[in-house]
Automatic annotation (TrEMBL):
Source organism superkingdom: Bacteria
SAF domain segment(s): 70-133
CDD domains: SAF_CpaB_FlgA_like
Ranges for region Disordered: 1-39
Name this protein carries in UniProt: SAF domain-containing protein
InterPro entries: SAF
Regions crossing the membrane: 42-62
Keywords associated with the record: Membrane, Transmembrane, Transmembrane helix
Amino acid sequence: MTSTDTPARGHNATGEPRPVSWLDRSGSPATSAPRRGRRRRLPHLVTGVLLVVLCVGGAVWWTTSTQDRTPMLALAKPVALGHVLTPADLRSIDVSAAPGVALIPADQAASVVGRPMATSLGPGALLTPDAVGGAAIPAAGRAVVAVGVKPGQFPPELAAGTPVTVVVTAATAAGTSTTTAQGQGPGTSWRATVVGVSPAGTDQTSVVSLDLDTGSASQLAQVPAGQLALVMQPAGGGR
């Protein structure tokens, strides 16, 4: 009679013992193999922790750098030497100034409005105390000379800080020589910057103070009155 009993647990079909899943071939408890899933998750966990640290560090840095920035006065448009500042000329910019850099805080705008520029600056330039106020003129190697001009010999828009070309014209009175001792005849010209313009007197003559190099100032001073014309030039081209 053939037995239909199944082999006992731990034995094969021939009756020989076989190792069970928790025993190795020698019969000793088997050491479970490490799971691959855990090995794969570890690098991802480390990467996530690093990302969190970087994000927190970046947030702290951004907050600190923002807190160190202070509103300072800057120019909203280009201004020339001698230009009287108005509120429209100013804007506020948040900056982180280095130690020792003198800037004007934005809440002190009232202290500079109505004052002349001591230099020419472009838009976005930060204002410093030295940039506002009376200009130190004439500078070394330069001189200031006054010329008398009548209506039609200079643009009415002429103002302090305007770069101009001073041109010798023909004589206005009959018999007056158009050539000076230095040979400055009609067409001779010099580049200069307007320092100031006085109102016209009873004879309709306006006095314009010009800043130019010393040699040119000496030549210009010898040109007879009434033989000069002032031509406005683009900003920044006066020197």
